[in-house]
Structures are given as C-alpha cells and as structure tokens.
Amino acid sequence: MRVIFAEKIKDIVAELCIQANLYLRKDILRALKSAYQKEDSQRAKDILGAIIKNSEVAEKERLALCQDTGLPVVFLEIGQEIKIKGNLKKAINKGLESGYKKGFLRNSIVNPLKRDLLRFSPGIIHTEIVKGNRFKITILPKGFGCENETQLKMFNPLTDWSQIKRFIVETVRLAGPDACPPYIVGVGIGGTSDYACFLAKKALLKKVVFHPPSFIHYKIHNMKYGIREMEYDLLNAINRLNIGPMGLGGRTTALAVNINIYPTHIAGLPVAVNISCHALRSATKVL
Amino acid sequence: MQRLSTPLTRDKINKLKAGQKVLLSGKIYTARDQAHKRLIEAIKQGRKLPFNLKEALIYYCGPTQTPRGKIIGSCGPTTSLRIDGFTPLLLKAGLLGMIGKGRRSYEIVKLIKKHKAIYFVTYAGCGALLSRYVKKKECLAYSDLGPEAIFKLEVEDFPLFVAIDAEGRSIYKD
Fold this sequence. Notes:
The structure holds 2 protein chains of 2 kinds.
Chain A: E1 2-5, H1 6-22, H2 26-38, H3 42-61, E2 71-79, E3 82-85, H4 88-102, E4 124-130, E5 135-142, H5 144-147, E6 151-155, H6 161-175, E7 183-191, H7 193-203, H8 213-221, H9 227-239, E8 254-264, E9 269-276, E10 283-286
Parallel strand pairs in A: 1-3, 2-4, 7-8
Antiparallel strand pairs in A: 2-5, 5-10, 6-9, 7-9
Helix pairs in contact in A: 1-4, 2-3
Chain B: E1 2-5, H1 10-14, E2 21-30, H2 33-44, E3 57-59, H3 87-92, E4 97-100, H4 106-115, E5 118-121, H5 127-131, E6 134-141, E7 150-164
Parallel strand pairs in B: 1-2, 2-3, 3-4, 4-5
Antiparallel strand pairs in B: 2-7, 5-7, 6-7
C-alpha cells in the first residue's frame, strides 16, 4: 500500500494556490487570444487586450490575476490503494492558509452570518475515491461575482433539450455584465440537486477546447447530439446574446461551455449552471 | 479619449457621456459592502466621514495584500449591484461619483441623474494590470476590515469608461 504523508499535501496545496491565482491557465489564454482576433468592435478588442495584458502583468509582477482570489475549492481524487498518514483535512486547510499568505492573496473568508472573521480557510473540499494508487489534487479559487450567478433547476424528467438549453442560455443572459464576461459556463446534468451543482463546478476544470473548422463542419452535417455538439450549440447560442467582454457588447460572451452528465432518478432531471468569470483559475498536481 | 484629474467638480463630470473612455489622475477612495455599512451609520449619526464626499469618487474595491516592495496588490473593481442599497443615502449626502463593475439598479440610475453624479466602470477581473496605475495607497479608516477598509489611492491615468452619466444615460443596453 502506497503511503502519502499529509504534511506533504500541505506544501503542495500552498504551491497550487499561488500557481492558480498568479498564472492564467494556458487554455484560457489561448481562447482569449483567439476571441481577440474574432472581435471587430474596437471596445471589445480594447477590453480583451486588457485582459490578456493583465495575465502578463500578473505573471511578471507575481500579483494575483484578480483581487478576488476566491473561495478555494479543492477537488481530491484519492486512489483506494493509498494510505494517508496524518490529518488530511487539516493539512489541506493549513496549506490554503500558507499559500494565501505567501502569495499575498486576499483573505475573503468570513462567518456567513456574523461576517466578521477574516481567514484564509477553510476551503470547500470534494473527495472522490477512485481506483489505483494515484492522488490527484486540484485547487479552483472561485471568485464570488460569478459564483453568485449560479442557478439550479429541477426539470420534469421528460423535458426536451430545447427547454434545458433555454434555461442555460437564460442563466447567462441574467448574469449579463455582472460576473465578468467572457464566461466559461459549467453545466451539470443529472444526479441529485447537490450532485448536479458539483458536476457543474467540476466542469470548469475541463480544458477549454478550441473548435477547429473541421469540427464545425462535422457539427453542421451531423445533428446527432453528443456532449461536444451540445456544448458547441450552447456556446453559439450564448455568443449570440451580444453581452460581450465586460458586458459592453461583442461576439465573445463565453469562451466555452463544458457539460458533465451523470445518471439520475426516473422522476427527475436536475440541471445546474455554474458560471466562471474570464479569470478561471485552477491548478492540479498528481502524486 | 479624455484625461481627467481630481479634485473633480460637478461641472467637469457633467460634460462626460456614457460610453466615453476616460483616464483619471488623482485621488479615489476604496469602499466595499462593510465600509459602506459604516459610512451609512456615520451619516445617520451625524459623525464626520473619513473623506469629503462632495468631491469624492468611491472605488468599489478590496485589494489583495500588498506584496513586499509594491505599492498595492491586485486591485480591480467588485460588483456594484451589491452596493446599490447603500448608494441613495451617499448620493443624497453629496457623493460625486462611483467606480465599479456591472449594472446598477433602475433606482440608482434615476438618482445619479437627479443628483448629477456619475458612475464609471473599469476593466473587470484585471486587478494586476490596474495596480500599475496606482502610485500611492494609504489606509484612511476601518483598518480592522482588512481588504474592506477604506484606502485613499493616488492614481495616474487610471482607465475608466463612463457607464452612467449625469443625464442618466447608460453604457448598458437594457
């Protein structure tokens, strides 16, 4: 049985907090640059240019990409053949505290009702037990401007796709300029209400794919719906909203739509939408 | 593109039009939800405020910690809608303008017009970039609130868009 020491996890968490908050994900940067090329309004280009420049400044000056360094969401995938020595939960929260302090990130965590305790932890920890002996840890510092736009709807089981699609697009329309577009839209379909929300959040971790022209061609000529096709279809519908960068109009309202699906009950069809701002930050390490 | 510097007057800001890009130099004051709550309490109790509202722009911002050797950390705007509940009393007390991100409620748009005030937005989610335009930072009040304290910032060519002008015109479509 493979042994991993909790103490080691602490250091890794600290490192991942800094990495996620300071360095924009390469897939997001690529999507932003491609969006910049596609925009023809001067203001949309100006704003996308500032967002791209921001990632360069953050990296060079070692500053957080955004002052909202989020509520850290921690995704663990623990191989069932691993034995962890020490207190894992404590180690993770210690790691968050140390990373946020070292990276000069913002302390944004308060007691929900008293609102007066400023801390760097606790984070939100999701644990999945998987086969094998790998330990995978991902930190997603989730900003709350966009988290506040989350929607969950429990549909009737036989609702057709066009209505689900309308709900997802409407969620983005309602967010409008307020959650820092261009967005990455995470969608969770199935499971229970809580699980659909988890799936939607986890969908933000999926790599933002660049749709090559051949894919677009394929899509048009093959209307059979797979997840990729649904994502592409939604992305186009959302980008027709003309919300644009910073909500000031343009072709780029979202950079991507990522969907996660899971079986559900015969009586239900939960759909959750979790929006991320353009500063989608996450960092992963596999042990 | 227009350059603007503080101290601002109503005459100066009333010439600006929604959609215009402005580079601002001078002093602005940060305040988020908690600081607003205290400002409102102070106004209601007739206490003196940490800065003079009549020529002030409030910036909805709670910066990250300041790294060693730097003036300020990451310092972009936060969502303005959340502040809307506090804004009517501040406008009534003479507040000149605000800087944030996103829309305002219909009520606030009307009040901005009534009081001939102004609302700017700046690059959202670009806190690292915006830190470059801050030349000085000083904590004025409520330091116990950490990032939500009131900071006086001296900025140079800080990029803004006029989002709601003194005529109540808006940069947003709806």
